[in-house]
Amino acid sequence: MGFLTGQEDTKEDMDxxxxxxxxYVFSADRNEDYVETIPMHDPYSRKExxxxxxxxxxxxxxxxxxxxxxxxxxxxxxxxxxxxxxALKEAVVGIVTVAAAIGxxxxxxxxxxxxxxxxxxxxxxxxxxxxxxNLSSWRLEPSEHMDRIRMTYSFMVDNSxxxxxxxxxxxxxxxxxxxKGRPPK
Length: 185
What we know:
Elements: H1 11-17, E1 22-27, E2 32-37, E3 54-57, E4 69-70, E5 73-77, H2 85-89, E6 94-102, E7 108-117, H3 121-136, E8 139-140, E9 147-157, E10 168-172, E11 176-181
Parallel strand pairs: 9-11
Antiparallel strand pairs: 1-2, 2-3, 4-5, 5-8, 6-7, 6-9, 10-11
């Protein structure tokens, strides 16, 4: 049974699901009534990454803490954090530090690279571009004020990871993301 329609999901349904970042669920039979935020999906399987979802059972007096947040603002949507294929192929590792602003609407803007270590051309081109693209996709909950952030993305090669596409991402918000990948054979 499909997720969106109750029937077998089509390619169009799955493409729409990739843009779904929250859902409301009500089932009188199962006594369920809740809202769930879905900040990201696996780009290859198109399945949600449940470990980052936040479920709010209804009715509620208190909103539970968001699993991914910065300065008290929930990270509602973002593109997958990827390890660039060319960087993995060349075993490029590095640490990219950026500064940006989260506007009142929740959009991230004014992203600038503060440093890339090591300062090789490959690290700057492949990793720096990936970080800017990822951070520019973030949408946080609106606020009455703008927030300035500083974020460090660490890219590491890890040959012990399963041989699969994608990356293993560890979140240490508000300031660090570790991205591990296994080079292709």
